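## retry 2 of 3
previous attempt timed out at serialization; input unchanged, resubmitting
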Amino acid sequence: MLTPTRCAADVARDLAALVAQDPRLVPVAERTGPLPLRLAEPGLFGLLRIVSGQQLSTQSALAVWTRFAATFDETPATILAAREEALRAVGLSRQKVATFRAVAAAVEEGLDLCAMARLPAEEGRRALTALPGVGRWTADVYLMFCGGHPDILPSGDLAVRKGLGFALNLSEAPTMKAVDELGERWSPYRSTAARLFWANYRVVGQKKAGEGLPP
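## retry succeeded, writing output
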């Protein structure tokens, strides 16, 4: 089992191992260059930031989270005491407000999200998706970026799927099931594969957009 990903050197090491394991990814890594680390602190705000970004563009997600973090502190009691109108005012949907409150209530009752981030991936995913409003994508991203798990592939992420499709010259983005099946080949470096496909999506998608094609 790999140690948690904690620094850029860990990502570079795992990328070298990944492309040695699957040489098809060599030109993809050459195209993207060094991959970003993008780690975040685990805990209540770490998970809520991911929830706030569900189904939003990166820019929109950042705007919502910036407003939220400037308005509320990191205590579950503050979120539970807030009026729905105040939470909606920062850009949260009603569904996300309900999830914020459910997660805050669980933390208030003793749930340790920092400890959960350190659980084995499958165990952590099951525990996180038991929380109302937390699906697999949110759980995977939390474990990957807040827990540093090295072997998680968020197959529900559209950019990962598109970036993988570009990497393997597929005619369309693969389904979640197909990504999970393809990902077996990249274990135990699936988190690095995800970083590679995100980077590839940005590079190739921007190029295609510049040519007048959909990213």
